[in-house]
Design brief:
single chain, 269 residues, alpha/beta, TIM Barrel, 8 strands, globular
Length: 269
Amino acid sequence: MRYGCCGSMVARRADGTGIEIVEQLKEMGFDYIELSLAHIMALSDSDFDVLGERLRQTGLRCEACNNFFPPQIRLTGSAADLPLTLDYVERAFRRASLLGAEVIVFGSSGAKNVPEGFSRDRAWMQIVHLLRALDPPAEKYGITVAIEPLNRLESNIVNTAAEGLKLAREVNREHIQLLVDYYHLMMEQESPDIILEAADSIRHLHFAEPEGRVFPRGLNPGYSAFFARLKEIGYTGRLSLEAYSGEFAVDAPRSLSLLKKLENEVWDG
């Protein structure tokens, strides 16, 4: 597998992209960085150029982006505006592709949460129509949109990996697939066996220790079960650590070593 780290959850800079950890990730042995697309889209052209140059100088690509949509772009409810959204998508895909992104994560609870009093079924179909409309520009820029189910404490629609898989299958477009996040999986008390059912749709993974959503510090049976299912489906794609940390310089390399050790033990075992 290829291992990356999401910068936004440990970001300290005002721009919120998470770019400030890129040199550390390179030194620690990570394969890529995952940056916040909504924050990247808020950058001026000159600041975006500076960010891109920093990546080039470091030699670590932004192979994935999380935080697709900012909350002010409404995707469900009466305020949803598909043409306006697709204008943002075109610009966002262009910037992401210039940074080397191949996967864009669609969680975006603030943008997609169903407004109070609005039909959940209508909101679901709004999301289906949006995702189908994303397929042509995604193909144009060589990007896969990975649906990220978010636990019910964060979102009121698409909470489980099973629901994410249902959504991906209903959308039924090549460039719209699925992400499985270990943290959300455990928060919803969902069995990792969903990985077996979703095998053909999984294009990206996120990982964090559920207790506190922090960087994992030691092996546990839940991690092993998760990796065992990945082994069963022959997953060799990307996994990004998406976690909080009070001591990033210690937590990140330790977690990377732990996950590689876990992968090797499960694969070899």
